[in-house]
Amino acid sequence: MTDILMPRLSDTMEEGVISSWQKRPGDEVAVGDVIVDIETDKAVMEYEAYEAGVLEKILVGEGESAAIGAPIAVIAPVGAQVPAAPAVPAEAVAAPAPAAAAAPAPVAVAPSAPSAPAPAVPSAPAASAPRGTSRPPSSPLARRLARDHGIDLASLTGTGPGGRIVRADIEAAIRAGGPASSAQAPSAPAPGVPAAPSVPAPAAPSAKTRADDPDVEAVPLNRFRKVAARRLTESKREAPHFYLEREVDAGALLEFRATLNEALAPSKVSVNDLVVKAAATALREHPAVNVSYTGEDLLFHKRVHVGVAVAVEDGLVVPVVRDADRKSVSRIGEETRELAGRAREGRLTAAEMSGGTFSVSNLGMFGVRSFAAVINPPEAAILAVGAVRDEPVVRDGQVVPGRRMALTLSVDHRACDGATAARFLARLAGLLQNPLLIVA
């Protein structure tokens, strides 16, 4: 017998949640077969078998969590007599669950949960999930969205290949409001609240009160948002941020980009690709910004890995472009788009979201003039990029039409001082205003 243990799939992972089992007790398992989808703090990832055999027992059911290293299933040798498997799952899954829950992991989760009794809610959909073998085929992202919104996959008809339920099917169900409503039993109390109108007295409604308001829909936080909330709170609380702002004349940058795209057609590079490359180049020249603070040491990173913030439905992820200073702008553009696409599909691996030494967050495409981003620990700084705007610019003593772009650098003062960060930002601005230097 071989125990399958909860793997560590990301550097910040403390526990994993079983998103769905791809094998059932009694199924034969070959090396390389995907046996389970595991939801980490960053993504839902498929986990493959490293040993062949027969899946004898599932110890942690779908929707349940387990600490890293805790057994989640048992594989028996090929040819071994597996006792009446089909009947085992229900009891087996239910019984061991408490053991996994008694593991230290839940204690670690507790700190972030106190304010929200909601954690109990996420487990509800899992309980309602079909445990039979007739579950329709579905993608990991679809299963996660269905679980987050309390949608029973068995109630849907997949439009993917072979009837596979895909993300679009879940989104359609959410818009229709049908299946989701069944899982949102918590809103049931609302009908009883009508009496509330007669008690409008309470002036300052608490968060709990608002959750009970029939005009408010309480959506439990998914795992991604919980983790993001915890890490960003820690960052703002523990890392003393200071901010440096700088306006950049982006006229030459846009002209350079147009020339580059004409030469690269049909491939294209974006303004953000140029910013990432320029930031990486400036970091190579200013290694004191490419650092991490550990409490005991200041780590100077010898390689420049730039994280690019990508907004997804579940929150925010930051895939990393490794060795960005050594790559061409076009290569950075291709890699960034490929990573962003897979981020939105929930298919990024932990390795692709780990190891960043600096991050870039760009909200310019939304028309945001400027903003200050929260540092993504353990990095020492993050660059926030605003929209390119048409504004008058003084050039050679003359006021002429120009294009401006705002940069805001958030810096961890424990790792980097103001003058050092200012020199880096000045160099970055110089590169963006003389873009030939970015590719020189």
UniProtKB/TrEMBL annotation:
Residues 137-174 form the Peripheral subunit-binding (PSBD) domain. Its EC number is 2.3.1.-. The keyword Cytoplasm does not apply. Residues 1-76 form the Lipoyl-binding domain. It comes from the Bacteria. Keywords: Acyltransferase, Lipoyl, Transferase. Its cofactor is (R)-lipoate. Residues 188-203 have a biased composition (Pro residues). Residues 109-143, 177-217 are annotated as: Disordered. Pfam families: 2-oxoacid_dh, Biotin_lipoyl, E3_binding. The keyword Acyltransferase applies. Residues 123-136, 177-187 have a biased composition (Low complexity). InterPro entries: 2-oxoacid_DH_actylTfrase, Biotin_lipoyl, CAT-like_dom_sf, E2/Pdx1, E3-bd_dom_sf, PSBD, Single_hybrid_motif. Belongs to the 2-oxoacid dehydrogenase family. This is Dihydrolipoamide acetyltransferase component of pyruvate dehydrogenase complex. It comes from Actinomadura graeca.
